[in-house]
From TrEMBL, chain A:
SUPFAM superfamilies documented for this protein: Ribosomal protein S2
Purpose: Required for mitoribosome formation and stability, and mitochondrial translation.
CDD domains: RPS2
One matching Pfam family: Ribosomal_S2
Gene: MRPS2_2
Biological processes per GO annotation: translation
Protein name (record): Small ribosomal subunit protein uS2m
UniProt organism field: Amphibalanus amphitrite (Striped barnacle)
Origin: domain of life: Eukaryota
Cellular component GO terms, alphabetical: mitochondrial inner membrane; mitochondrial small ribosomal subunit
Subcellular location: Mitochondrion
Amino acid sequence: MSLYRSAVRLLPACLRVTSRRALVTSSARTKDHDLHLPTPAGPLGTWATLKPRPEKYVDTEADIDPSVTDPLRHPDYFGVRELFTMSDLFDARVHLGHREGSLNPYMAEFLLGSRLGHCVFDLERTAQLLRDALNFTAHIAYRGGIIMFVCRSPQHVHMVERTAMECGEFSHCRHWPPGVFTDSTALFGGVTRLPDLLVLLNTLDTVLEQHGAVKHAAKMLIPTVGVVDSNCDPRLVTYPVPGNDDSTTAVRLYCKLFSEAIRRGKAEREKSAVV
Amino acid sequence: MHWRLNRRVTIQGQTVIGKCGELKQTRQKIACSMSGCIVAGAAFRLAGRTGRSGRRALCWTASRQSEVSGGDTQTGRPTADETTATTATSTFAESFKKFEGLNQPKGDETRRSESFLTLLRNSPFIKMGDPTGKVVEGEVFHVVGDDLYIDFGGKFHCVCPRPPRRSEEYVLGARVRLRLHQLELSSLFLGAKRDLSLLEADATLLGIISSPYRSKAKQAT
């Protein structure tokens, strides 16, 4: 029930642009701070201004702070903001993008600019979006969701598969057959439980094509967390993390952060189950 | 003689090196605007001629400063020069302490608090400018036959063939010198909307800096 609630609140990007306006009305029924919507990351011109991010949720009407009782109402229940610093991102070369010639126009809003033709990401923005992504991942793990890692960069496949195995989750880093999500019953010979979250460390399959999982996950209403480089299309990714997806240092950092977020979520789940 | 005062004062060890400036009088307080220290100027003579630009390096040591301050002790009463010199020395000492840690590597705390823009501005990526022709240091992180995959700190690695000279030293973990040509091999092909990238950098191998092969050979002998 609560997983459904979080999926409804945090819609995949393919539905977000049109239905956010329907969901968030001017009425007093639902307010932005109630929903804890992440930083807007839509295509160019969708958001006029970045909304101020609430550091601490304060509900004046409640007897006790609801963030204590309900993890979903806490802005950062698992403390993912302390998992990394700006220097960590910088040393891992997360800010380096491709050349201007391969820039996807929908990624332009995440760039600081370009240095002699090489795109540079705005790490302040990336850090915010990465925190949102890690927070969401931890919440999914807390609710007992299945998380699947996807990576199509040959030099990182082994690292990602090992990361998934170590945190007790799943990965699919090989060729993506067309009907994995959309025709899973026929492909696997029975009713299959699909993952509750897809963590994409490469949203591109080859340099020219987007990974099929991005589109299929959006079709099946499976939220995605994806590292989008300057040549990627961020529109269908629920929680895009604009950054470098080619350097080994960057991928190693992402693996470390996501596995730590998953571990925290699972540890909290065990703690609450015991209690 | 006129020479221009440059505002920058760096302190290395005991010696304070600054650029000399316009001195109207031989004894004058030289105000260093960066450091904020006020030093009583002795009558010093510049070695060599001043050029047309009027800039010459001026060196004085802390010991010479004490000579200046102790010059008038024979008379027994503190002169104006001495008081100014002692206050000047204490101010100099304060300023010296402020810059003492300049050459030491920054601690983690200062690094962590820096903003992204500061980190970027001071990064080799920006300071390098145009990558074409720049010489960088890299490390061999993968070897496939005679192909060396070298990571030099950019977004992509480069692949270079093993050179025939000292070929046994080019092993995993060797530090090598490279001349960069491009940080990313990508270009627009006819009929394409966007660039096609090879996901590699382009560099020429210049030579070896250090190799585990050498250190192993040394250990063996």
